[in-house]
Amino acid sequence: MLIYILDMFGTAIFAASGVLMAGRLRMDPFGVIVLASVTAIGGGTIRDMALGATPVFWITDTNYLWVIFITCIFTMLTTQRPKRMPWYFLPVADAIGLAVFVAIGVEKALRYGASPMVAVIMGVITGCGGGVIRDVLGREIPMVLRMEVYATACIIGGIVHTAGLSLGILPSVAAVMGIITTLTIRLAAIRWNLSLPIFALRS
């Protein structure tokens, strides 16, 4: 139940990031909902389609759609107020949602018989896929392709999760280990502005 609640929390945070980008791009309400939706459930949808887990999760559990819709309304109303939230709120909340999404992706892939390597990839897709779609629609280079320590945190967290399972650790404990690992790395990157080295060709 805790993982499900955190999953809904992550869905709301990812949806809010889609709303904020839609606002910067001056989209109409339909565009806001579309961008929020692909951000929140796009990664999980790609994962389920790749695994053959159909119908995809938000079709069998429409709570995800309600969370996205309510988040859209709430975010559009509250962001018009002059009082601003602390700068770190959204990045930290995003990190929590990211960590939970990765664990859910890994667990679901393993449940469908995927290998540990594929499970890690599915975890990364679950955590990062929606953001990639959002950035592409917003005509930006996806964050996972830039210097930020984002997808790297997902990969390491997924590896810790699957390694724990291979060592015989209880699935719930292994999932928590993966979540804590992803979250810690991502929060450290936010706190100390950590980034990966870039590849640049000399002209």
Largest sheet: none
Fraction of residues in helix: over 70%
Q: List the secondary-structure elements in sequence, H or E.
A: HHHHHHHH
- Over the alpha carbons, how many angstroms does the gyration radius reach? 17 Å
Topology:
Layout (H helix, E strand, L loop, with lengths): L1 H23 L4 H23 L5 H4 L2 H16 L10 H23 L4 H22 L13 H16 L4 H22 L11
Helix pairs in contact: 1-2, 1-4, 1-5, 2-4, 2-6, 5-6, 5-7, 5-8, 6-7, 7-8
Structure notes:
The chain is mostly helical and 203 residues long. The chain contains eight helices and no strands. Helix 1 packs across helix 2, helix 5 packs across helix 6 and helix 5 packs antiparallel against helix 8.
Summarize, please.
By secondary structure, the protein is an all-alpha fold. Helix content is about 75%, strand content about 0%. It has helices spanning about 1-25, 30-50, 55-60, 65-80, 90-110, 115-135, 150-165, 170-190.
Features:
single chain, 203 residues, mainly alpha, 8 helices, 73% helix
